[in-house]
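Chapter review: from sequence to fold.
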Amino acid sequence: MSTSSKGLQWNSRASLLALMLLFSLVLSACGSEPAATTAPAAGGAAATTGTSASGSGTQIVLTQWYHQYGEEGTQQAAQRYADEYTKVNPNVKINMVWKPGDYGTELNAALLGSDAPDVYEQSALTPDMVKSGQVVALDDIYGDTLSDFNKIGLTANSYQGKIYGVKMINDMGMIYYRKSLLSAAGIQPPTTLEELGAAIDKLSSGQVKGMFMGNDGGVGVLASEILWSAGHDYLKDGKPDFNNADTVAAFTQAQQWLTAHSKGILNGSPTDWWDPTSFTSGLAAMQWTGLWAMPGIQKAIGDDFGVIPWPQIATGKGTPATFRGGWTEFVNGKGKHVEEAKKFVQWLWIQNTADQADWSTSYGFHVPPRNSAATAATKLQAGPAKEAVAMLDKYGIPSNPLWSNAMNTAYNDAVTNILTKGADVKTELGKAEATVNSELAKQ
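The token string follows.
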């Protein structure tokens, strides 16, 4: 599972990817006294120290954090990669830590303390991470492979001319729909917000709801997708792009739309938007979730599904939309073994193309960040997966490294007030814009 839109969606990938998306404190490399290291089970704690005995030499221990991916086999794969590295580098042990729960909150807390991981994944780079030393520039580890990495991903992980992360996977969101249910109702896949609302109402019958967008009622999805489907973004040319006539009209429409179709939108699902169970179990005829969920959906319902991007705001207005998210590996700039951590990241996510291919398509589906790997990913070259990749290339909106945590909070608060409290759209977006301008001035 992965999330990465920059609005509420991530806090759900995100959101999702939310998503946007899971952490408990783990001791990292922080000393020189020999000690044993144990790999944690899901949800368990691991005891680690900076070094441990290793034959005649000293073994460095690097702590690596992952959020809890939902696809079966991912935790075992991450542990296998860690073990492989130690086999070829006996003086370095990787303590792979799998973090269920609220990953974002626990990671942020850990990075502010003395027991932070040496290597960790995060959905997006922010200025805060650079300024606080939570990341270190990685330009030097790319070498001649730099031109093979997707430029959009490189830009999303760059700040003031330096690259601070290595993209692990690219993700996107889309609406999955049951072909049989739409056909029985005489409905074509919706292409506008109004058509989507009509489909939600018509597909709602008995225990089956028309649409599932997350247990927040879809607020997280709408925060990003309404903005993008109106043809705008969080920032454009270094300035706020979410408070203008188009977006005010779009969020006013979304405010009314959410109220009008709320009875057909599933709430209180046993799983959230990034898990396809609500869709595959028949609780909803349509669901917003990610590309990563496609293998599980195919296994559960065969070919009885189609995919579409989030529809444009209205006929002739805006554009279909989705997030261009995913996960990026970062090296903690305050770690005890920064150079060793950089070498590990280089080995796993730049040099080790076999494990990169395995991580992208053997469990859930993700688009590899390297152009050559994406071209070689045969599982993404047919059927709905091929359609999804085409949507990502045409409509995907990447994160902007200038978009800080404070900006995100101000924007999310505004959209929440608009969509759940009926607040005035122009007023709320204006407040958020003032905060964003203030934060940009600090940068």
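Two observations follow directly from the output. Confidence is low (pLDDT under 50) at residues 2-49. Residues 173-323 form a domain with the D-Maltodextrin-Binding Protein; domain 2 fold (CATH 3.40.190.10).
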